[in-house]
Amino acid sequence: MLPCVCWLQLILILLSSVLWTRGENCPATCLCPDPHTVDCTGRGLTRLPDEIPLDVRRLLLADNWIPRIPSDFLVLYSDLVYLDLRNNSLSHIEPGTLSTSSRLVFLDLGSNNLTEIPKGTFGESRSLIKLRLGNNPYLSMVNEEAFLGLTSLRELELERNALSTLKVGALSQLPSLRVVRLEGNPWVCNCNFASLFAWLMENSHKLPNGVEGMECSLPMDGRRVSLTQLSKDSFRECQATLTLTDLLIIIFSGISVSVVAIMTSFFLASTVHCFQRWSKGTKGDEEESEE
Q1: What are the helix (H) ranges across 107-218?
Q2: Residue (of 16, 17, 18, 37) closest to 26 by Cα position
Q3: How far is residue 89's CA from residue 109's CA, in Å, rounded to a whole number?
Q4: Residue 104 CB neighbour total at 10 angstroms
Q5: Are 230 and 211 in contact (CB under 8 A)?
Q6: Residue 9 to residues 18, 37, 77: CA-CA distances in angstroms?
Q7: CATH annotation of 23-186
Q8: Is pLDDT at 18 greater than 60 in this prediction?
Q9: Which candidate, 67, 97, 72, places its Cα nearest to that of 85?
Q10: Closest CA relative to residue 181, chosen from 207, 154, 152, 146
Q11: C-beta neighbour count of 214 within 10 angstroms
């Protein structure tokens, strides 16, 4: 019996040590349901918590009042794969802040106060699969190269923001994109929207509700219309493509104008030269007559 008691005591000591270590590494205001998860949801935080374990993999910071993320915050958390910053007070993300998160798979920045997504915001987070940027009421600009390098991104949420236009390049550079949400934005049906409209019609299978859930306002009177009521012909006046015949006409016209200009210059020069010779001859005849 004695050996069994010794083994039981050893197991209890080890368990106590593990539990003590987990409690010791967990931020005071947060919960740590497992060794690699830190849950600080709804704790009224006004800044990022201190003493986050370096081996954290899931960091939950939703429903707080965090205004910013230090640019070097994620440098030490190389194992982080899941970051939830939903419903905070973030107004911007400094370029490069997330570029060190090489293993980040899920990132939620929804329901914040972001105003723009500039180039380099996400670096080249090649492991990122799902990115949530929806419900940012002041988000009105997304750089065309904002998502450059996100080669594994499958789901992108940009719904219910303040976007009136979006460069197609921002979406076409995502080779793994399967789902994109763009509904609820104040799109404007002008020539800047024409390319995006064509992309949406070609990729409507990537929209959860197709184009049925999307609207845009007419530039003339601001009236909202469903994209289902539009077609490529609606943007016919925005098309500025040239056919081969048009290009040949332009080239031929340019050459013709150049030739005519050269001939005109030669004719004028010859005329001036002849006039000068005639003037000299006339003057010489008058001098001889006077003598």
Answers
A1: 169-172, 191-202
A2: 37
A3: 10
A4: 23
A5: no
A6: 14, 29, 35
A7: 3.80.10.10
A8: no
A9: 67
A10: 207
A11: 21
pLDDT digits 0-9 by tens, 191-249:
999 999 999 999 999 999 999 889 999 988 889 999 999 888 888 888 655 345 544 55
Shortest CA distance to 197 belongs to which of 163, 145, 232, 223? 232
SS3 (DSSP) at 16: helix
* 50-63 residue pLDDT tens: 889 999 999 999 99
Specify the pLDDT at position 25: 82
- Report whether 183 contacts 206 (CB < 8 A): no
Confidence band (pLDDT; 50, 70, 90) for 95? confident
Alpha helices (H) in 166-212, listed in sequence order: 169-172, 191-202
Helix (H, G, I), strand (E, B) or coil at 82: strand
Contact in structure between 46 and 67 (CB atoms under 8 Å) = yes
